[in-house]
Amino acid sequence: MIGARRIAGTALVLGLVGLGGAAVWRQLSGPTATPVRTAYATARASAGTMVADVFGTASLQPAAQAAITSPASGVLQTVTASEGATVTRGALLARLADPALALRVTRDGLAVQAALRALAQAEGVASSQALASTAARQVALRAPLSGQASGTPPVAGTSVQRGQTLFQIVDPRTLVVQTGLIPYIGGQVRVGDLVRARFHQFAGGVSGRVIAVSHTLGASASGSYGVYATTIELTNPLLLAPGDRCHLSVQVGPSRWLTVPQVATIAGYRRVARVRAPVAGRLLSVSVLPSAAVKTGQVLAVIGGASFRGNIASAAAALRQAEATQRQDAATLSQLTVRSPLTGVVGRVLVHSGQTVASGAAITDVFDSQDMKLTLQVSELQIGQVHIGQPVEITSPGVPGKTFLGRVVAIGTVGHSSTGLATFAVRIVVAHTGLLKPGMTADARIVLATAKHAVMVPIAAVLTHGSHAGVEVLRNGVPQLVAVHLGLVNSRDAQVLSGIRAGATVVTGVVGGASRHAAAKAPQSNGQGHGGGGSGNGKKARG
């Protein structure tokens, strides 16, 4: 058979086209040589289940793996990662030290708080309410107590400064008298003692009570003798005012009253409140008249204006800038903390505490120890029969006697060729097993097709010439070439659809001497399809 060759590899068979007939084969084979004494290697065609598969060997790798690198340059303050340790996602692996940045972040926080207080002051509200201030941009001044407006109120349209006193509200119902008691009297007076005051403006007296007595002698008004400074609260019948003079008597026993020899003067009102401008701006309105009576919570005036709004806008801008600086520095500081991006096992740790590292320097890696992956290279003649989710049998010499079930999870879309036949990367994942380890060698087998009751011959028995195939059947010690139609092919056997039957003795090689079909028996192929890289057989021959 001139130009024909015996198949020793899978890829050489997968593209076969069925024979056109025995006559075509005889024309291609040409005249035979004179037989000589030859010894043949033979095998019998068998019947059984034919399995076409892809078989390959590859190294196991973690299905999920993350390389951990330094996010910045600096000194490693701590390295908590240790080889072989199990970590959860977000677990601390290392931290870089940057004391200056940490101090700056602390100062940023203080700056934000100061800016917030400044905004609250500009708006005239508490710090807790500064960010929720309304867009009205005006502040109402209210009476802090019920009483009487004292003095001359300001005029609407006047510019005011923050902290400027605008109103004074007094409660005229209670007066305060400050006097000095001589030791004879002061030594007997206690806080809470009843007091009676007599005024020349009207008959009768005004009652009161001692609210403070000094325990230390002080100089009298003339400085000629010592007295105990005493403060007395009097009830005002709304006929008295500060500056009025009176005579006092103090009850120091159940029925004993002591008369204070000197005349006392009303110092002022007991309850006085000064209403100050909480913000700088302009008085938009004033709603209280001189000496008018007011009630607690009553609006006295409203402050607003362009300058007031400008102060708020400026303070708000300063707050936003302080917050932006804080966020930026905090984000930079957070980058100095290296955390695990996934749950898994820590690999080899390449650094140690106190070491200076550059940005991007390798620290360690974390991998998922439960899921393993491997990649097979599958021939272009078989890739069409491989699909996502296809089961894969996995074995490893590292775990003898055990078969693991994997699945195809990805198939390459672009083939790569180094020998003229393109191959495609097929990624396989073996899930939820702790027995397989990264770096182990694994054998993977993908079953592509199955044929029952198939007639099979060893792949070495098949001869090809162009698109035709045949086998040599040994009859009476003489090989006779028979055209066959092939079906499924794997790395060991070929399915014969027609041409021979089970039990036929076929020639698989020459042991000695020269075959009468020596011209048809080419050298062994390159072994493509016998494992290694997943280039096994499995495509059914056409024809």
Could you characterize what this model shows?
- This protein is mostly beta strands.
- It has four domains: about 1-65 and about 370-543, Efflux pump adaptor protein, beta barrel domain (Elongation Factor Tu (Ef-tu), domain 3), CATH 2.40.30; about 65-100 and about 335-365, OB fold (Dihydrolipoamide Acetyltransferase, E2P) (Beta Barrel), CATH 2.40.50; about 100-135 and about 305-330, no CATH class; about 140-305, no CATH class.
- The protein is about 15% helix and about 45% strand.
- Strands 3, 4, 26, 27, 28, 29, 30, 34 and 35 form a nine-stranded antiparallel beta sheet that branches. A six-stranded antiparallel barrel has the order 12-15-14-13-16-18. Strands 1-31-32-33 form a four-stranded antiparallel beta sheet, covered by helices on one side.
- The longest helix is centred in the middle third of the chain and has 30 residues, at about 305-335.
Structural topology:
Blueprint: E1 5-6, H1 11-14, H2 22-29, E2 39-44, E3 46-59, E4 61-62, E5 65-69, E6 74-79, E7 86-87, E8 92-97, H3 99-123, E9 139-142, E10 147-150, E11 159-160, E12 165-181, H4 183-186, E13 194-198, E14 205-219, E15 226-235, E16 245-251, E17 257-259, E18 264-276, E19 281-286, E20 293-294, E21 299-304, H5 306-335, E22 337-339, E23 344-346, E24 356-357, E25 362-367, E26 372-379, E27 391-395, E28 403-411, E29 423-430, E30 441-458, E31 462-465, E32 468-475, E33 478-483, E34 485-489, E35 493-498, E36 505-512
Antiparallel strand pairs: 1-31, 2-36, 3-30, 4-26, 5-25, 6-8, 6-24, 7-23, 8-22, 9-21, 10-12, 10-20, 11-19, 12-15, 12-18, 13-14, 13-16, 14-15, 16-17, 16-18, 19-21, 23-25, 26-29, 27-28, 27-30, 28-29, 30-35, 31-32, 32-33, 34-35
